[in-house]
């Protein structure tokens, strides 16, 4: 059965479909989320002579009592070490909070994206496909609105994911710790970086729409693997473009390295990373970030397309029954 989804579902229908797909996809590949977060917050210090100044700190000034944090050389190395030290449960640390965050963020994003897109089309009386600039702009607006409401969960989850097993606490206790350390505003740590990072979903879904029109012009209902392919491709483009900002946001939301004061801005995090690891340090963790992104976005869009179709059938049946 061929059904058009255009303007058939209300905004909440697309929001629930997006949130459902996101939760299922993220739960499937959650260990990769832990790994990419750990890789992005670790600092590999190097000693390089630059104009008479050593890049790495003076060892004599370091506190010997502070143990060196675990260092991960690669994705597989991180998985092995986390599993050995914390058990299998270590690869799922902070999962409940993360999935709550994923569900709320994606619900908010798809709700606002559908709302602002529909509003824009009605006001502009737009005919046919929207331009790439319009798609990216609408996606950025939707992403900004979603971040304002959902970033506290991301802050708490990042704290859980980067805490040692013996110091790890539940969602509520971790949130209280954040508030105790930084006040209520601490729950919105990294907000500026997150608002800048709205270009990530904007690029992702803008690219998804554009690739869909390119590869499958006029096709209303995509097959599961077609949706997976487009989702993975669009996420890869967005990840390469925004990885330095992703690293900076994680640095802001996690506990700072031993002996390092808490970062105040994403620019400060980026300077710190470049100082110790060079420009390539801004792309640390990109391997699991890409793997996670490709799988999650592919599974998300594949599931979302199916759920939207089911909702559409149910919604039309309900409207028909009610005689509206």
From TrEMBL:
The keyword 4Fe-4S does not apply. InterPro entries: MCP_dom_sf, MCP_transmembrane, Mito/Peroxisomal_Carrier. This is ADP/ATP carrier protein. Belongs to the mitochondrial carrier (TC 2.A.29) family. One of its GO terms (biological process) is fatty acid beta-oxidation. GO terms for molecular function: ADP transmembrane transporter activity. It is found in: Membrane. It comes from Arthrobotrys oligospora (strain ATCC 24927 / CBS 115.81 / DSM 1491).
């Amino acid at each position: 059965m061929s059904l058009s989804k255009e303007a058939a579902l209300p905004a909440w229908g697309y929001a629930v479909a997006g949130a459902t797909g996101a939760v299922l996809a993220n739960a499937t590949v959650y260990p990769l989320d832990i790994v990419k977060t750990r890789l992005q917050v670790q600092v590999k210090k190097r000693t390089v002579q630059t104009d008479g100044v050593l890049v790495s700190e003076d060892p004599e000034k370091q506190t010997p009592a502070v143990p060196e944090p675990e260092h991960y050389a690669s994705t597989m190395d991180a998985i092995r070490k986390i599993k050995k030290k914390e058990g299998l449960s270590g690869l799922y640390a902070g999962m409940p909070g993360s999935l709550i965050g994923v569900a709320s963020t994606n619900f908010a994003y798809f709700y606002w994206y559908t709302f602002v897109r529909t509003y824009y089309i009605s006001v502009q009386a737009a005919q046919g496909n929207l331009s790439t600039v319009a798609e990216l702009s609408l996606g950025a607006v939707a992403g900004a609105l979603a971040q304002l409401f959902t970033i506290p969960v991301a802050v708490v989850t990042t704290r859980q994911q980067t805490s040692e097993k013996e110091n790890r606490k539940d969602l509520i206790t971790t949130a209280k710790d954040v508030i105790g350390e930084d006040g209520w505003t601490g729950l919105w740590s990294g907000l500026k970086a997150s608002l800048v990072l709205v270009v990530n979903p904007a690029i992702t879904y803008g690219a998804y729409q554009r690739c869909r029109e390119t590869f499958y012009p006029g096709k209303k209902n995509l097959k599961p693997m077609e949706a997976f392919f487009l989702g993975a491709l669009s996420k890869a483009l967005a990840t390469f473009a925004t990885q330095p900002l992703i690293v900076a946001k994680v640095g802001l939301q996690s506990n700072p390295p031993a002996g390092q004061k808490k970062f105040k801005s994403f620019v400060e995090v980026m300077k710190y990373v470049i100082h110790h690891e060079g420009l390539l340090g801004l792309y640390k963790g990109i391997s699991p970030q890409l793997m996670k992104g490709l799988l999650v976005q592919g599974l998300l869009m594949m599931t979302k397309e199916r759920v939207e179709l089911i909702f559409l059938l149910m919604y039309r049946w309900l409207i028909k029954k009610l005689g509206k």
